[in-house]
Amino acid sequence: MTTAQPGDSPPRTIIPIVPESPRGVPADDEVMVSLYASRQKIHPRSVSGLFSNWRWIMVWLTQIVFYGLPWLEWNARQAVLFDLEARRFFIFGLVLYPQDFIYLTGLLVISALSLFLFTAVAGRLWCGFACPQTVYTEIFLWIEKRVEGDRSARLRLDQSAMGAGKLGKKALKHALWIGFSLWTGFTFVGYFTPIRELGALSLAAALGPWQTFWVFFYGFATYGNAGFLREQVCKYMCPYARFQSAMFDKDTMIVTYDEQRGEPRGARSKKADPKALGLGSCIDCTLCVQVCPTGIDIRKGLQYECIGCAACIDVCDDVMDKVGYPRGLIRFSTQNGVAQGWDTRQMLRRAMRPRVLVYTGILLAITLAVGLSLFLRTPLKVDVIRDRGALARMVEQGRIENVFRLQIMNATESPQRYVISVSGLPGITLASSPEVEVLPTEVRSVAARVQIPPDAASAGSHPIRFEIRSTGEEVARVNEKAAFLVPR
């Protein structure tokens, strides 16, 4: 046994096993056993049924939105565009600036609370039906099936020696995967660079370095996660699987195996009476394991690897139909429901429990607050910055002047004319032009010269207020505070 020195990498745990000889005398040879299990590739079996159909509906919905949204136009521009270079974010009719970051915070909080609420009520529905990892894994598996065949064909292909046929199928599969991944990366970057402009640059091989980096980076991430890592992302990389137990309780709807009905399991003739043989409804076909994308056996109970995709429910119901047994050996249920034999109505009554009510109340309050804030949002933003080159100075007739710089942001998609006024001190006036025109979604900097009479205020700092008001049909008004300095 060696002793680890500072700076050494952690050693692998190796347990020496001394096997016994046939006569019970230990042999001289030692066998080293590593505690690190190598990954076994999972080849999920194809399945059809109610939940499989819903899963594909979610695949289509999410991908139509993701791939189609950048191509929509709104007011002669891209409907959804996060223009980082210009620091403007367009979401249909909304024009947001970095100062509106609070709305992104609200959106993230709403998303997190929604996830907590859905998990408390119905387990990992997000993971099983709408998570990008699940969605892209489904798409990549569909491509793999079309090229290499069903599960048994893929197993035979992987076990066979490398030849022209195997090489051709593998090359075609990876080519399709890479093409789809690059298109995904291109679409992702299209949310930050106008996608039509991005397409023209791509065809001309004139993409900028950052655009090229992110297209390939996101494409590589899609290719690696959906093509190779797959269930490893859900089991080891995603933190959700680790803290989901904090949101589960015995009234959470999860994929469950009815052990009382299914055990003892065993093969039997279709015409045989399972009660006479002392068997349960499970015929031990292992199809529920073969269709599982994470490779678990749901018959062993709740496991953190289960993503709630319900593929095992579809295949088990199909088997029950074939052998003439009632459906529901594997089903969506709660631990209390299975233990106490509750029906669906009884389980739904337990859905509105304190935890769920708290999540729902907080989620509704935050959603209402964010929605109301967006509805009442003024499409005009102003920042007042003092001109540091001239804090205060004496001008004609002994008047005292301060110079401010107003950053006026027009958060509409039409030109606006604004009127600037100032108040807060006796005789205070605006010596510069009181009107300014700002183009659509433009940020314009305006110098504002503010003057007061010689004896209007004592020496020191005095609060004043700028009012910026639009002159259009829909009046937008903003008041901003500032400080007027009077020299000694």
* First-last Cα distance: 81 Å
Percent range for helical residues?
Answer: 40-55%
Average predicted confidence as pLDDT: 89
Write down the overall geometry.
elongated
Q: How many helical elements?
A: 17
Largest sheet: 5 strands, antiparallel
> What percent strand?
15-25%
**Class from helix and strand fractions:** alpha+beta
Q: What is the tally of beta strands?
A: 18
Number of domains: 2
Rg (C-alpha, Å): 33 Å
Low-confidence stretches: 1-15
Describe the protein in words.
This protein has about 500 residues and is of the alpha+beta class. It has two domains: about 325 residues, no CATH class; about 110 residues, Immunoglobulins (Immunoglobulin-like). It contains 17 helices and 18 strands. The strands form six sheets. Strands 10, 11, 12, 14 and 16 form a five-stranded antiparallel β-sheet that branches. It has a four-stranded antiparallel β-sheet with strand order 15-13-17-18, with no helix packed on it. Strands 5-6-7 form a three-stranded antiparallel β-sheet, with no helix packed on it. Strand 6 and strand 7 form a beta hairpin.
